[in-house]
Amino acid sequence: MTTFDDREKAFEAKFARDEDMAFRITARRNRLLGQWAAVQMKLTPEETDAYAKAVVQADFEEAGDEDVIRKLLGDLLAAGVDTDDATVRRAVEAQTVEARRQLMEAQ
After folding, report:
1. How far apart are CA 5 and CA 46, in angstroms?
2. How far apart are CA 25 and CA 72, in angstroms?
3. Domain containing 59 — which CATH number?
4. CA contacts within 13 A on the Cβ side of 60
5. How many folded domains does the chain comprise?
6. Which of 6, 77, 78, 79 sits a CA distance of 20 to 30 A from 107?
7. What is the pTM for the complete model shown?
8. Which residues have CB under 8 Å from 33's CB, separation 6+?
9. What is the pLDDT of residues 14-63, one digit of tens each?
10. Which range of residues forms the domain containing residue 38?
11. In percent, how much of the chain has pLDDT > 70?
């Protein structure tokens, strides 16, 4: 039975590592999205930092990415940036890849 117990513990450890990595990728992606949107809105460096943190916080409103997309799209349109839903979704995809790359390089 110890072989099965060892396998179970290994699977649990892998699951925990994978979940941790997914969380870190999402948080990094959201920060990068905040920085991307801040550039579009022509914010100052101080405003950019605060805005990136606000985007990270927005992700805790509901499960999935829709809360972040809504925030970004709403803020960009309110700032007079000519954008649409598809552009924001492409930015989400691009920043997800970049966040994963950054975290993989850091390891």
Report:
1. 51
2. 18
3. 1.10.790.20
4. 5
5. 1
6. 6
7. 0.86
8. 52, 55, 68, 72, 91, 92, 95
9. 999 989 999 999 999 999 999 999 999 999 999 999 999 999 999 888 88
10. 2-106
11. 99
